[in-house]
Design goal:
- Helices cover about 25% and strands about 25% of the residues.
- The model has no long low-confidence stretch (mean pLDDT about 80).
- It is globular.
- The chain is an alpha+beta fold.
- The protein has helices at about 5-10, 65-80, and strands at about 35-40, 40-50, 55.
- It has one domain: Rossmann fold (3-Layer(aba) Sandwich), CATH 3.40.50.
Amino acid sequence: MQNKKAKDLGCNEGQYVYFIHSYMAVDVDESDVLASINFGSISIPAVVSRNEVMGFQFHTEKSGPEGLRLLHDSIEYLIKQ
C-alpha cells in the first residue's frame, strides 16, 4: 500500500493484505484516502477515513498479523484526530 498518509497509519509499501472483491470505491475525495494500491494502471483506495469513520477495501480480519496491527493502529490514528 502506498500514499503519503499511509505511513501515519502504519501501512508499508509491499505490505500484504487480503483483497478478494472485484469492486472498488470511486469518486473518493483524495483528502480522505489514507492508503491506496496500484492494480496495473489503476489506483485503488485501500483505506479511507473522514472524521471518526474509517473503511478498508480489504479484509483486515483475514490479513493475519498485519491486519490485526492495522486495526490497532487505526484506532490509535482515529484517537489522535
